[in-house]
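Box 3.1 A note on notation
Throughout this textbook, protein chains are presented in two layers. The first layer is the amino acid sequence; the second is a token string describing backbone geometry. Keep the layers aligned when reading.
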Amino acid sequence: MNRIAQDIIDAHGGLDAWRKYRFVSARLDQAGALWGLKGKGGILDHTKVTVATDAQWASHSPFGDIAARSDFVTGHIALLDSDDHVLTALDAPRASFAGHTLETPWTDLQLAFFAGCAMWTYLNTPFVLAWKGVECDDAGSWEEDGETWRKVNVHYPESLEVFSKAQAIYVGPDNLVRRLDYDVEIAGNTPGAHYVFDYVTVSGIRFPTKRRIYPRQPDGRRMAEPLVVSIDLSNIRMD
């Protein structure tokens, strides 16, 4: 872990504090154009999300009226009933998105995979910068929202399931994350600009409680419309 990663992680509470816990959970309220576009509106509008901090695992419970919960790990996705019996599952789920565009509808398992991959990455940021094989480097300054942000390029290893291996994090003068950039490869490489704000402190760790994701233009600026995804988190807990 280099100095850039160290400074950002320290601003969010520090790696020692983070590693005291194995799980992060929160109430999740979502909206935005994406869910209806994929034919999955309403399923995950209001649920609970839990992610691991020491392994790539995430779960949404309930998973609408479809399942008691989802179970996302690297290379596998499943939907389970209230007794933890598998209702349906898929190995190598990323391969099922071959040929997809932004408008291609999803199956329930594809929704579970997307949501699990997304929320694991979001809730583990920026501490994922300390994972083996994750590299980051300074990409210079960026002017937005009346502030000068620091842009940091992030490169993820093959061992982690993320939207794209090359991403970017923007941090403010306080080294708190303001924005994430990535291309959603499983949705036709759709470029996203993902803003985070309204931080709270839970068990010594700083978490943004609001996330808003917009299309990203070729010059790096966001489009004002449509709002692709909105995420509100509450009742955040670390265990």
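The longest strand covers residues 190-202. The mean pLDDT is 97.
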